[in-house]
Structures are given as C-alpha cells and as structure tokens.
Amino acid sequence: MPTVDGETASLSTRDVANASVTYIGSVSDSDQCLHLKIYLLSLGANVKEEVSDDLPTDFNDIMEGITTLLDSQVDTDEMRSALYSLCTLLMKCMKSGLTGYISKLCSMFEQNGKQDNAGIRLEILQTLSFYELTSDLEKTEIFVTSLKLAKQYKLHDRVMTDIQEVSKLLDTWKVERDGRIIIYRLIRDIFIDSQRNDEAAVVMLELLRSYDDHNIASSVEDAKICVIDALKNPEIYLFDYLLALKPISNLRGELLYDLLNIFIHEDLKSYVAFYEKSKEFMQSIGLSHEENLRKMRLLTLTSHIAKAGDAATFDDLAAALALEEDSLEQYIIDAISCKLISAKIDEKEKKVIVKWVKSRTFGKAELKQIGERLLKWKNNLHLIRKNLSTISQTV
Amino acid sequence: MAVSSPLQLSVVIHPVVVLTICDSYERRNEDIEKIHGTLLGKVEKERIEIRNCFIDDNPTASGKKKFNLEEFQRLFDLHQRVYPNEVIVGRFSTGDQIDDTALAMQALFSRVIESSYVAFPIHLLVDTNLTDSHMGIQASVYHRYGVPGNDNGSIFTPIRYAMGYYPEEMSASQLFQRNLAIGGIAPVHNDMQHVIATSTKIDELLDEVLKYVEDVTAGNTPFDSKIGRSLSDAIMAVPQIDQSVFKDMMNNSTQDLLMVTYLGSLVRTQLALAEKLNTIL
Predict the structure, then answer these.
(1) Domain PCI, which positions (chain A) (predicted)?
(2) Is residue B184 domain-resident?
C-alpha cells in the first residue's frame, strides 16, 4: 500500500466487500450482442451474424468468438472496450440467474491470448470479482486465474500479493485448506520470480500453516523448500520459529532436519562434523558451504558471548570460531550490524563488552525476562506521568 | 513508462477530500439529494494522490440545470493559481450508487478536457446517506465499453485505495477521534498534556503486553516465538535506565523546566506591566 510520510490506512475488507460494479448501457442487450458479433466477424471469428432474442444463446455464441479476439492484434483501447462489453453481457446473464460463465471465462482467459492483452484480461477478471452476484467460490477461482496469469506474463504488480490482505480475503471467501495451499504456492512463485525473497519466506510460512493433520504427508516438499530457503537467506540467522510448524517437525529423522537443528542449537564444530559426514547431501540441496560457515560462525559467536556474560575475550572467541584473531573483528562487527549482539570492542584489553545478546532460541524464560523489563518500564512511565501532572498543574 | 492498466494504479485519498465532500453535502440546497464535483490531485507515474476537490455549481430542483462549464473553468483556474501542479483526476458524487448524472459528467469530462484528463479517470462515491450507519467510500475507474464505431455504455470498476495523511492531517484526525470517544468537543492539548496523553497511551499498551506475557507464562495463551522476538527487539530499542538514576534525571529536568516556565511568565508579566504603564502615561 502506498504511504504518505509513513502514515497509511489501507482499505478495510468491509469496503472491499461492499464495493460494487456499476454499468450503464446506452443500447439494448440485443444491439450490444449484434455489435459485438459484427465486430468479431470482422476479425474472422466463427460466430453467427444474426441475433436471437435470447441473451444466453447469443452470449454463448459470442464466447466462442472471443478466442479470435484474444489472439488478434487489435490495439489496447479497442481490446479493452470490447472485453468490457463482453464483461457487462456476462453480468447481465448472471443477473438473469445463469451460472457457470465465470469458470468458463477463467479457463478461456488462462488458455488464450497474447502478452499484450494479459493485463486487460486481469482487469476484466478483477472487475468480475467485484460484481455483487459473483459467489465466493467464483471469486476464489478468479483470484487463482489472476495469479496464474500474473505469474505467466510476469505482471507481478497487477495482482494482490500482500499476504495479510490475501489471508483476510481468503477468510471472507471461506477458502478451504487445499485452495489456500494452491494460492500461497502461486504467490510464493511470484515473489521468487520478482526476487522478493523475504516476502516469499513469509508466504511460505503461511503455506506451511495451512497444512493440518489430514494432509501433512503432502507437505514434505513444501517444508523442505521452506527450510532450505530460510537457510539460504543471508539475512536470516534465527530459525527456531520453524520448529513450531508441524510440517517441519514432521521432517524429523531427515538429514535436513538435523542440519536445521545444528543451525538452531549447535556450534561451528558440530556443523563442520556434519558437513564432513554428509557432503553429498549438502551439495544436493544447493547450500553454499562458505555461506554456512559464515552463518555458523556468527551464531557460535552469539552463543559464546551469551555464555560469557558482560565481557568476552578475543582469545576465547577466536578459539570457538576457529579463526585467527585478526579476522575475528570482522565477525564481531557483522554480528553487531545484523543485530545479533549489541557490544563494544575494547582493543586495548582485547575483549568485547556486551550490552545485550539475542538468544538463538526463544522460550518462556526469555519471555519472563521481557515481562520484568516491561514492568520496570511501566514503573518509570508512572513516575514521568506523576511528575508531569504536578508540573502541568503548577504551570 | 506510462501506466497501461488501472491495476497498476495506487490511489491515495487525503481526508480533506472526504471532509470537503461531507461539508458541501451539508451545505447543499435543501431540495437536492446528491452533490457532484471534481477531484484534483497529483499524478506521479502510477500513483494518484487525490488532494483536493470542489463541487459543481449546484443545480436547483426546478430542473436539471446544464453543467456550468464557465463556472467550472473559473474555479479550476483559481485552484491552479494556488496549487499549480494539481490536475483533474476524476469526479465525485454522493449517495450509495453511481447515478446517471455522475455518468453523464464523466462522459462530458472525458470529452471536454480530454487532453488533460488522466488516462484512467477516478470516480469517488461517498455514501453521505450513511447506509448501514457506515460512510462507505468507494473509488472506481471509469471506462467506456463497446466496439469501434459503436459505443455501448460505461462501466465503473472498483479500485483499491488507501487513505493518506500528512502529519498535520494525522494529528487533526486523531483529535477528531478523541472527540468521538468523549462524544463532545475535546480541547486541544498543550505540549504538557500531549506528553501525558501519549504516556497514558503507552501505559495502556504496556498493560496489554504485560497481560499477554502473563497469559503465556501461565500457559493460557499459546507461545509464539515470533511475538516474543519482536517484543524483545522493541525493548532493546528503549534505553535501559535504573529507577533511582532515572528519578534523579527526571527531578533535575523538572526543576529546570519549572525554572524556565517561571522565568517565562515573569517576562510576560513584565511586558504586560510595561505596556499598561505606557498606555497610562
């Protein structure tokens, strides 16, 4: 969503749900059909020239000819207004109680057409999803088709991919588990294609959350992708949140699960030992050993500093990280810049003075500590308020 | 690159626009139901920021008066003098649905000012009737449909938008919300009251967080390490000061502040006195 000086309020779901399409025609339905038919005929489509008085019959006939339009070379504006004409006819058919047209249109849009008109197809689909007679099931189908089109034609900015908004919509449409999995996978692919890895990771989590006991068996592939993506991401260092996901704890017993556990709990030595033992596996999942070493060094540094308390000496750290003392400093700086620790380097005394350390796993004990700090904060705040009220009364 | 599809647009509406529409609606002639007008704003690539609007010359109930193009041009020129970089981005109307007049106006606008009209004109529908006691705001894009040579009608397709606030607008709308909460007119806070109000707010939020922590440690709420981590990040960002040190700091600055306020009022009194003396003498 766009921002103005950092402040936004996005369109609430209620407003989306209430939005409606308005169309106002200036000719009769049969004239509109006739115009479209003549136009399609001029493009070489195989449609009947005469119109019946029955709108659905005409509409079906026109639908047959639309593929010709989609594959033709007409310019954007012309295509848009012709397709909108079709769109209004479809809405009129739906108004007279006929169903099934949206599915038909979705599959037609998915299979036919050129790159040039993919954007317009997306527009038409979006318009139909706002129409009041479109059922939730049809809206879901439209959304899936739109995502597929966006992925196929690389129109990533034309579909809604904001994961929170999407989840909200899926809730309102009451989309079942399997539908969600399909949608989340598509969104993940779109993010990967447009190199937005962080967002892809978020979608992946949402995807894994959609699995439950009934279909956990089919989650293995997704779970593996999720773990590998996370390990690959150079900006993610803490992985304990992954263990809470069922599909991932389901991987227990696999090498990947062991590797993940090393990244969560263990140190550099265990990683190196694991690597020596399972070199082939490491190659098969495509993780870079160098990058892993870097990550593991930072993580080992973090836990070492956490154990050491207020200060840690260079010697100890260098030994734990299997490094020369010269290259140690770079790792400390890296750890500070990626916010694993907050510390100062004391060159003279050859030690690191620690302010705080992020814990690699986050449990209830840590939460309790936070609780205590919050209480302290609250008390300080009370003091401020008391003082200020006295002052404001005096003033 | 030019915008080729309305799906790329990101529409931002400033609260001033909605308030102006409501205000104009309130001031309309008694015998008319709906008001119509023009939206102005800034267009930057795919971003349309609706920042201003003005209403059409009010038609009377006695008959549909023709749209007063001269009046419109006059108002628009005046606007241009104040905000030269704002262009016409669309139209607005009130009510719960887009009516024929709104449609006719859109058609007229795309004809009359075709060259300077945006590629995808916006229509803003503000439900001043408060259907379902909710003021719905809907933004749509106006399209013509039909085939070459045969124009068959118009369609308005909804489009997502966001409300955008400048800092001034933000504080004003926060003030309005306070009014709503107390059901009257809340006084504008001075600096001190602002700080107190904000710290009260933080206090409430802290209570909420503390409750969550308690619930989790007691086992009533499932534990989520993600929330825990964000909490810890937030706390790390706040400087940790010991309570006694903090007390001293606070007291010292309080004394300073009181001193400054005292001196300030002293100066003010003196000035007032001098002025009085001057007038008497």
Answers:
(1) 196-359
(2) no
